[in-house]
Amino acid sequence: MSSILTNNSAMVALQTLNNINKSMSTTQSEISTGKSIASARDNSAIWAISQTMQSDVSGFSAISEALSLGGSTVAVARNGAESITNLLTEMKEKIVASQEANDDDRTKIQTDISALRDQINAITNAAQFNGVNLLQGTSSYDVLSSLDRDTSGTVTASQISVSRQDLGTAAGAFGGTAVASAGDLITGDANVGGAIAGNSGDSGVITITDAGVADGASYRVTLQGAGTADIGTTLETFEYVANNTDTAADVVTALESQINTFLTDSGSTEVSVTADTSAGTLTIATAGGAGAGDTVTIGIAEALDGTQDGGLLALGTLDVTTDEGANQALDDIESLIQTAVDAAAAFGSVEGRIDIQSDFIGRLSDSLKSGIGALVDANMEEASARLQALQVQQQLGIQSLSIANQAPQNILSLFR
C-alpha cells in the first residue's frame, strides 16, 4: 500500500544512512587520534585499565631517572675506592722498601707516605655526586628501584640500599647527646657500677638494649682494678659507636673483642669477659684466685650522635722512620688495602645490581607500552579499509534515501 503520509522506505533508508554516518564518525576519530578507545565514553573498562597502566609507565620513567642518578653516585664511590686501593698499593711498596733503608732514606720515604695519605684524604673528600659521598659516614643510601603493584592494586616502592664504606682517616668520637632516659642503650646488673671481688668469682652482666641500637648510638665500658689486681689501677675505657646496620650482637662482639685484646696484652689471668650474642649481654668476671682486695670496678655509659672511626684510621699512625714503626706499618698496610678492596667490591656489586634493575625497568616499561597499545590503539590498516567501505555505503545510502523520497511523487501520476 502506498501512502503520502507514511514513507516506510524513506524511514529505513534514513536510519541506515544515520548508522553509516555514525560508523564513519567513529572511524574518522580513530584515524585522527590513532586510538580505538580515546576516552572513557568509548569503553570505560578498557580505558580505566589503560590509564592505570599509563600511570605506571610514567612512574617507571621517574624510577629510571632515579636509577641513573643512583648508579652515577655509586660509580663515583667505586672509582674513588679503586683509586685509594691503588694509592695504598703504592704506599705498600714504599713501606717494604723502608724495611732495609737507612734513617735518611726512611725520612724521605715517610715524606712520600705522608703525601700519599694526603691524596687519599683528598679523594675521600671529593668522591661525591649530587651531594652524596659514600666514602664517608655509615648511614645507608637508598636508591628508588621499583614500584610494586599487588593484586589488590596497592602500590609500594622498592629500594636498593647502598651501605656507605667509610674510607676516612679521622678518629671517631663518643656521642655528645644524652639519651632520653637511662638504660635506653645499655644497662647493668647490681654489680655494674660497683666493684667485684677478686677472690669470689664475682661477675657483672652488661646488657645492650636491642631497640636502642642505631646510627651514632655510643656505648662505653670501663674497667679499673684495685689492690694488686693484674689489670692495673688505671681506668681502662672501651667504646663502640654503632651504625644503622648494627644489632645488639654486633655491639657486644665489638666490646668483647676490645676487652679481650686488653686482657691479653696486659697478661691478665684474674679477669675474663664473655659475650652472649643471642641475649646481647657481656659478662665480666673475676677468676676467684686473687686476693679479697683485688677488686675490679665495672662502669658503663651511653650517648647518642657519636661518630665511628674512619675505615683507614691507621693511616694516620704509619711511621717508617724507626724499625718498630716500619714493621708495624707493614702489618697495618695489609689491613688497610683489604678495607679499600672490600669497599670497592661492595660498590661494584651494588652498581651491577643497579644496572640490571635499570635494564629491567626499561624493558618492563616497553612491555607496558605495548600492552596499552594493544588495548587502545587503532588498527590503521583496518580503519582505512573500513573508511573506504563506509564512504561507498554512505553514497549508496544517500542514493537510496533519494529514491525513497521520490515515491510520493509517483502517486501523482495516478491522478492524471
Compact description:
50% of the residues lie in helices and 16% in strands.
Q: Regions with pLDDT < 50 over 5+ consecutive residues?
A: none
Find the CATH topology of the largest domain.
f41 fragment of flagellin, N-terminal domain
Rounded to the nearest angstrom, the radius of gyration is: 40 Å
Question: Mind telling me the CATH class of the largest domain?
Answer: Mainly Alpha
| Whole-number total of structural domains | 2
The helix-and-strand class reads alpha+beta
- On the 0 to 100 scale, the average pLDDT is 87
CATH H-tier superfamily of the largest domain? f41 fragment of flagellin, N-terminal domain
Number of helices: 6
Trace the largest sheet across and list its strands: 5-7-11-10
Order of helices and strands: HHHEEEEEEEEEHEEEHH
Largest β sheet strand count, sense and barrel closure: 4 strands, antiparallel
Number of strands: 12
* End-to-end gap: 19 Å
Looking at the overall shape, the CATH architecture of the largest domain is: Up-down Bundle
Task: Report helical residue fraction.
Answer: 40-55%
Beta-strand residue fraction: 15-25%
Describe the structure.
50% of the residues lie in helices and 16% in strands. By secondary structure, it is an alpha+beta fold. The radius of gyration is 40 Å and the shape is elongated.
Helix and strand layout, with pairings?
Blueprint lengths: L7 H26 L10 H55 L4 H24 L1 E2 L2 E2 L7 E9 L5 E8 L23 E3 L6 E2 L6 E6 L9 E8 L10 E6 L6 H19 L4 E6 L4 E6 L9 E8 L19 H54 L3 H32 L5
Helix pairs in contact: 1-6, 2-3, 2-5
